[in-house]
């Protein structure tokens, strides 16, 4: 029967006219606009479908009380735009500096209406191709061997207009409210419709179902006018500062925790919502009972005939009746518009509200269908920031780069450097890269070594979950080993039950860097690319399989990993041990000596001094190095002996020393003995 229905739908579709685009994006929220920006910059054929009359329709309604919990840090003390994005959680990525969120709001926690205005400007100023008032109501597949992925995606809107595309990007987010059905659930008000006027709750007692930011946001709004507020959920409260997950309860909304712990009537309870039942009395009051009390009973007979928990346990916690019960249980993905032919499946366990996708953000059931934005959060749920703008702006860029390689033969962007720049390149990235910082444990920089470790190729912000597929996904080869640069928290530091403020919680010595708790860089070294089998068998909570060598750069209170002794020197020695080479920088004087005393010159001398690279020496530069203790003070007579100063040989030696000696730039002056 399913096959017949599927073939019948194909037959109907075959008689329709389809508007074709290479890429179709469903949803003009932040992730949809971000994907559109990258496709437009690459000159690709795409269209964005948006059911509303403007982009970002979710933010036109949510959060209900209009204050975002994504920070807008306008000042960091730095002018580096990449670094500043580490602390700007609202801006999308673009080349236009006008489209930085700090130009739209001065508030640390901005108003949601400002986000709507920002997204409207992002779409209009960049001239993104968004088709508004177009609600996609059905999506199915059409098999075709000539298509990019062996099939086309057929989309139908509310006006029965049909579209065809080779690649589908789903950016609809999570907007279907989570609803728990139990006896009496018809008396429950939803977060999406409940009043936001505190006066409507004056003198009332309120029960809130849920334990997330929407629940606490609702409580915060009415905290000062209610008799008391109770909050019930199946799980304990999880504080974001303890879990290091921005989706958990944020401090801006946790006023109820104060009034609960300081015994000011409000309270938190744990229990399975599906076991609850609500009974309404003649006065309109709502009584909480348990489902099993109502089994085989006629609830319409009235509350007097129903056993309540307090009838058997007179100190039952929720024995007091409530005036209102509010549901604040978050949202889930809308699967209703996708035909069975797409095999878009729900996640498992606590990820069932998300669609199942691979670490590459591609559907597990259908090639060419990618889920981006909030709905892609199953990849890093409760681990990183992939469900929020400051995370998925980078994962969306990663998806675009994967598509560029797969469909257009454009390899993942990379830069090739001589091996002497390896330490500097890593230090630069860990100190300023925003993608590594926000998508910790998910996106990583990949360093591909060239033959004989004379050079390396640097790839930025690649999804580590598909590291085994790197050569296929990026178009880059890794025959000589690789380094993976990633950011991580300490293994046992994060959790709802963790005390993250304990004494001696931070590590300061380089030799104890592996015990660092706070976010810090970790460098993995592999002699060969890990296999898919090794990725599946990696240790629990490890983002990567066990490496041939690993190095932790010790955590830093200022997140500034530039200390010569604590950060740079241990990193350089780790890299040297992995590569069996000397990565120090030398003066021309040392390179000249090595040329006569060693069989093999260090890479810096091979790639610099031998090729006549470096600054031309001068007496002023030499004197500065001597005064700094970086060079020995060889006088002219040390070389001339008893010869007269104006002899031909002495003049030639003086000329070589003062005018032709290649030396390092002053900002990198370090001698062999100092390093």
Automatic annotation (TrEMBL):
<comment type="similarity">
    <text>Belongs to the FOXRED2 family.</text>
</comment>
<keyword id="KW-0274">FAD</keyword>
<keyword id="KW-0560">Oxidoreductase</keyword>
<dbReference type="GO" id="GO:0005788">
    <property type="term" value="C:endoplasmic reticulum lumen"/>
</dbReference>
<protein>
    <recommendedName>
        <fullName>FAD-dependent oxidoreductase domain-containing protein 2</fullName>
    </recommendedName>
</protein>
<dbReference type="GO" id="GO:0004497">
    <property type="term" value="F:monooxygenase activity"/>
</dbReference>
<keyword id="KW-0732">Signal</keyword>
<dbReference type="InterPro" id="IPR050982">
    <property type="entry name" value="Auxin_biosynth/cation_transpt"/>
</dbReference>
<dbReference type="Pfam" id="PF13738">
    <property type="entry name" value="Pyr_redox_3"/>
</dbReference>
<comment type="function">
    <text>Probable flavoprotein which may function in endoplasmic reticulum associated degradation (ERAD). May bind non-native proteins in the endoplasmic reticulum and target them to the ubiquitination machinery for subsequent degradation.</text>
</comment>
<comment type="subunit">
    <text>Interacts with SEL1L. May interact with OS9 and DNAJC10. Interacts with TXNDC16.</text>
</comment>
<dbReference type="InterPro" id="IPR036188">
    <property type="entry name" value="FAD/NAD-bd_sf"/>
</dbReference>
<keyword id="KW-0325">Glycoprotein</keyword>
<dbReference type="GO" id="GO:0050660">
    <property type="term" value="F:flavin adenine dinucleotide binding"/>
</dbReference>
<dbReference type="GO" id="GO:0036503">
    <property type="term" value="P:ERAD pathway"/>
</dbReference>
<keyword id="KW-0285">Flavoprotein</keyword>
<keyword id="KW-0256">Endoplasmic reticulum</keyword>
């Amino acid at each position: 029967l399913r096959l017949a229905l599927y073939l019948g739908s194909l037959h109907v579709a075959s008689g329709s006219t389809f508007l074709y685009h290479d890429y179709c994006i469903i949803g003009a929220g932040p992730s949809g606009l971000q994907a559109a920006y990258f496709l437009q910059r690459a000159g690709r054929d795409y269209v964005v479908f948006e059911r509303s009359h403007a982009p970002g329709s979710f933010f036109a309604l949510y959060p209900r009380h209009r204050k975002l919990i994504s920070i807008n840090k306008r000042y960091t003390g730095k002018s580096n735009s990449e670094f500043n994005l580490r602390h700007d959680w609202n801006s999308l990525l673009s080349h236009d500096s006008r489209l930085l969120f700090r130009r739209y709001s001065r508030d640390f926690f901005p108003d949601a209406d400002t986000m709507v205005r920002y997204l409207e400007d992002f779409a209009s100023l960049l001239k993104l191709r968004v088709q508004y008032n177009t609600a996609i109501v059905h999506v199915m597949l059409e098999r075709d061997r000539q298509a990019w992925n062996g099939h086309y995606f057929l989309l139908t809107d509310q006006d029965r207009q049909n579209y065809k595309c080779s690649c589908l990007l789903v950016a609809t987010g999570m907007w279907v409210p989570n609803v728990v059905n139990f006896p009496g659930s018809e008396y429950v008000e939803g977060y999406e419709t409940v009043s936001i006027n505190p006066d409507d709750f004056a003198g009332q007692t309120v029960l809130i179902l849920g334990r997330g930011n929407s629940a606490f946001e609702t409580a915060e709004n009415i905290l000062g006018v209610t008799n008391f507020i109770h909050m019930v959920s199946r799980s304990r409260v999880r504080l974001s500062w303890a879990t290091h997950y921005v989706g958990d309860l944020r401090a801006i909304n946790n006023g109820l925790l104060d009034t609960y712990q300081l015994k000011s009537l409000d309270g938190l309870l744990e229990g399975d919502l599906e076991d609850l039942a609500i009974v309404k009395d003649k006065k309109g009051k709502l009584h909480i009972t348990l489902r099993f009390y109502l089994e085989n009973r006629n609830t319409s007979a009235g509350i007097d005939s129903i056993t309540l928990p307090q009838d058997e346990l007179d100190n039952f916690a929720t024995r007091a009746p409530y005036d209102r019960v509010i549901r604040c249980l978050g949202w889930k993905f809308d699967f209703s518009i996708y035909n069975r032919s797409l095999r878009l499946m729900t996640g498992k366990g606590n990820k069932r509200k998300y669609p199942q996708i691979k670490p590459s953000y591609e559907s597990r059931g259908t090639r060419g269908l990618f889920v981006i934005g909030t709905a892609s959060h199953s990849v890093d749920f409760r681990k990183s920031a992939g469900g929020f703008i400051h995370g998925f702006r980078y994962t969306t860029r990663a998806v675009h780069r994967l598509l560029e390689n797969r469909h257009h033969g454009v390899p993942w962007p990379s830069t090739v450097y001589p091996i002497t720049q390896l330490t500097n390149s890593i230090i630069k990235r860990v100190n300023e890269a925003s993608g590594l910082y926000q998508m910790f444990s998910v996106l990583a920089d990949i360093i591909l070594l060239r033959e004989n470790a004379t050079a390396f190729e640097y790839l930025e912000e690649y999804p580590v979950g598909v590291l085994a597929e790197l050569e296929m996904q990026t178009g880059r080869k890794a025959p000589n080993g690789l380094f993976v640069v990633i950011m991580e928290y300490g293994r046992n530091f994060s959790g709802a039950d963790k005390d993250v403020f304990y004494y001696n919680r931070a590590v300061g010595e380089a030799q104890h860097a592996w015990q660092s708790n706070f976010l810090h860089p970790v460098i993995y070294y592999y002699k060969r690319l890990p296999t898919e089998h090794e990725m599946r068998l990696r240790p629990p909570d490890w983002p990567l399989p066990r490496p041939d060598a690993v190095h932790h750069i010790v955590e830093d209170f200022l997140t500034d990993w530039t200390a010569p002794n604590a950060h740079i020197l241990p990193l350089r020695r780790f890299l040297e041990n992995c590569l069996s080479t000397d990565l120090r920088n030398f003066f021309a004087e040392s390179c000249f000596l090595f040329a006569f005393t060693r069989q093999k010159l260090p890479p810096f001398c091979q790639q610099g001094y031998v090729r006549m690279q470096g600054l031309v020496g001068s007496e002023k530069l030499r004197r500065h190095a001597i005064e700094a203790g970086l060079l020995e003070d060889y006088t002219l007579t040390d070389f001339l002996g008893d010869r007269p100063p104006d002899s031909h040989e002495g003049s030639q030696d003086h000329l070589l020393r003062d005018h032709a000696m290649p030396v390092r730039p002053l900002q990198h002056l370090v001698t062999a003995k100092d390093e």
